[in-house]
Structure formats: C-alpha cells, structure tokens
Amino acid sequence: MEKIKIQIAKDLLKIKAVFFRPEEPFTWASGIKSPVYCDNRLTLTAPEVRNDVENGLAEVVRRFYPEAEVLMGTSTAGIAHAAIVGHIMGLPMGYVRSGSKDHGRQNRIEGRLEAGQKVVVIEDLISTGGSCIDVVEALREAGAEVLGVASIFTYGMQKGLDRMAAANVKNISLTDFDTIAQVAAEENYIKAEDIDRLLKFRANPSDESWIK
User: Model-level pTM?
Assistant: First the structure.
C-alpha cells in the first residue's frame, strides 16, 4: 500500500485535487482555518489519475474486503467512484442519500440491497468521519453487513479516528494527509519547513497556532 499511497499523493497534487496554501489559509464552513483544500471530484476529469484512483480502490476492496458483495457510494462525491469500481470488479453498486427523498418511494438507499449482504462503502474524503458514519449506520439499519470503507484520502484527524473507532467502522484510504504533505515538500509544492506546521494543523485543526 505504501507505493499506492505515494502515487495517489502525486496524482492528487498534480491536478490540484489537494492544494496546499499555508501562507493564505482557506476557511472551512465550520470557520476553521485550513492550510489545505481537497476536491477529489477533479479526479473524474483527469483520466490518468482517475485510472490510478479507481484501480487503487478496487485493490483495496480485493485486499481488505474480499467478501464484498455490494459497493455503496456516499452521496454525492462517492457515487461515481462506486460505479466505476463496481464496473471494474463486476460488483453491483448503489448509493446512500444524505437524507430520504420527500417523494416517490422516499428511498434513502438507492439500488437493490438485500438484508445480510456484505457491503463496502466508497468515500472520497474523510475528515471528522461524521458523514461516513451516518452512511454506515443507514446501511446497518437496512440490514446490511458493512465490512468497512474504502476512501481516496483521509486527513487522519484524531477526532475522526476516534469517532470511526467508536462506531466500529474500518477505513482504508489510498493516501493520507501525512503522505501528501511529505510528497508536496519533496516535489516543491510547499517548503520543507511547512511540514511541521501542516502536521500541527492535522493534529488539532482548532488550534491556529500553526498560522504564522
């Protein structure tokens, strides 16, 4: 997995799906100042990177969740990835809405899902883990056996790790914040001295002392 981590890190940096700007922090919806911006939807419009990502996710499912019977994407960012990986692996896929529809059959889970089926959730990004856990709980309530999550990128924030562990949700990511920060320094996207600042942000996003 280490080789995949580094390759995906290079890919995401190349297309600016992950973009570091420690000198001019981004502001998240929560108000937190962040030195990094992540938009993995950009992988869909970069065929070579998309190929690395989807084959990487398929490899994660094969290696860590060999009993998988169904892939379920998170809405909306995980849907396309679940569809492509499902095609690669010959597995059925569906997706889980953020909430039930207010019309028709009022589904929250789209696609056929039978009670007892072994499911892997496909997610693009994990930060604090809340939305991913919500999807897993919806699938469990529907009778699925959720084997875990396969995601493109994780911040590795302690809050997210703790929440996922408490909810008994396993996650395997193609790459992570620490790897991307290291690769970014090696390839001159950021200065080497910025790494410590970035890792300080990752350790506690609410602590803004990393900002110069």
Answer: 0.93
